[in-house]
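Issue: ligand-bound run for S-adenosylmethionine - logging full I/O for the record.

Environment: standard queue, default settings, no custom constraints.

Inputs:
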Amino acid sequence: MLSYRHAFHAGNFADVLKHSVLVHTLDYMAQKDKSLRIVDTHAGAGGYSLDSRQPIKNREIDNGLRQLWLRTDLPPLLERYRDVIRGFNKQQALSFYPGSPLLAQTLSRPQDRLYFHELHSTDHRLLKEALGNDKRIKVLDEDGMKGLQALLPPPDRRALVLIDPSYEIKKDYQDVVQQLIKAWRRFPTGTFALWYPVVTRQRIDEMERALVRSGIKNIQLFESGIAPDSEEHGMTASGMIVINPPWTLWKEMETALPLLTEWLSNGEGHFRQLQLVAE
Ligand code: SAM
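Outputs:
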């Protein structure tokens, strides 16, 4: 039984990090003409109206994207992310937040193919509605990590995989890493982006160790936290682990990550940028 609904969290500090890295990576990978296979293993509902009842309950976007929305001093990676989201909104009002599927649909080309997995029946239906009739896209109601294995390697040998689970049970942390390692072995030159929440630091340390031991090369990690680690306050930080990242990402994040963290945490946050495994 799935209880997580991304609508409660859309546009929060974790989405800002996740989606700004995603937008940069999509832009980068679209520079080569060859077709790209985009796989989103945990897609969510596609997009989120900020006027609907769910996000209002938590208003997480108020401490997330809304803090950056009108700034005139954003570094390029964050400015590009904010501008892509502005494209879904009228002028400067922020009334709609596109999730990863709509971002990928918008930033992909006619030759690309997109695969979205979503198991929650309501979000699956909403996702299909949000994406409309787009012949490049398949929306699947199967387990995303199993579905991913069947999609690799891609025929044109280019793939971007976003792995963004809801981590509803503790075992998810281990399972997702094992499945990611398996997927990488099927296609070692693919770009894989794994999102993680820091709720219990030990679980993330274990994830990192498993990846370092896995034999996978070229892994970068970007983390932004709004409060010190704590087992009592839910998610205090989140991160993106990127295998075979765009070579441009590291430098862009060196500028963006400290600012993003400062702005979203009122100066009380922390960040990490690591080359977890060398090229
Ligand atoms: N990637 C989305 C975005 O960035 O806009 C948000 C995804 S949300 C964090 C995780 C989603 O995964 C939820 O909608 C949940 O219903 C779905 N989910 C949970 N377990 C799944 C599974 N095994 N396979 C596919 N989807 C799953």
